[in-house]
Amino acid sequence: MTRFTVNNQAVEYRLDPATPLLWALRDASNLTGAKYGCGTGHCGACTVDVDGRAVRSCRMTIAEAEGTVVTTIEGLSREREHPIQLAFLADNVVQCGFCVPGIVMTAAALLRRDPDPSEETIRRTVTNLCRCGVYPRLVDAIRRAARAQRGEEVIPAGARAGIDPADAARTVPALVPPRDTGGAP
Question: Where is the 2Fe-2S ferredoxin-type domain (predicted)?
């Protein structure tokens, strides 16, 4: 049995020690934020934080994770209040969202190591693939998150995820009266 900490919870996996960390997280722990993209570690969709490092979880076995502390996107900030998450929302970085958890985890690990990364450092470190092409907004959002994390900028509360449905839509009278179908379906 393999033991390590996942999102501040001690976990013992009764899986083959050669099981990729990604599948233990997704299948055994139901933490589906880390995505399966390529299975070779190239795309980064499966990135999680292991002891402060961004790790492609499809390439790490649970035996290699023994005794570590693993943080997934679900454990980064339950309320989506991490500066990276707020900046991504404020700067409209997200499109389809498939790759975003891996990018967020890579960026969060970067900011933990380097609170003021240069554009060059960001581009060299965040090598995750995004088929939607969010790259132009990505660097700006990470730099904004770094400023927020250092206390130099406040990301507006309106940038937080979620819209109250009552503020987003309401029922109104029909613009066109219903058509009489004479009782036919």
Answer: 1-76
> In terms of Cα–Cα distance, which of 167, 53, 159 is closest to 106?
53
pTM reported for the whole predicted model:
0.84
Domain ranges of the chain: 2-76, 83-159
pLDDT digits (tens, 9 = 90+) for 134-182: 988 999 999 999 999 999 999 986 544 555 656 666 667 767 766 776 6
Burial annotation 4-37 (CB, 10 A radius, 16+ → b, else e): bbbbeeebebebeeebbbbbbbbeebebebbbeb
Q: From CA 31, how far away is CA 27, in angstroms rounded?
A: 8
Angle (CA) 135-141-142 rounded to 5° is 95
Tell me which architecture the domain covering 2-76 has in CATH: Roll (3.10)
Phi/psi class of residue 7: alpha, beta or left (left: φ > 0; alpha: ψ in -120 to 50)?
left
* Neighbouring residues of 130: CB distance < 8 A, sequence distance ≥ 6: 95, 99, 103, 138
CA proximity to 161, closest of 77, 100, 87, 80 = 80
Which DSSP state fits 161?
S
What CATH number labels 83-159? 1.10.150.120
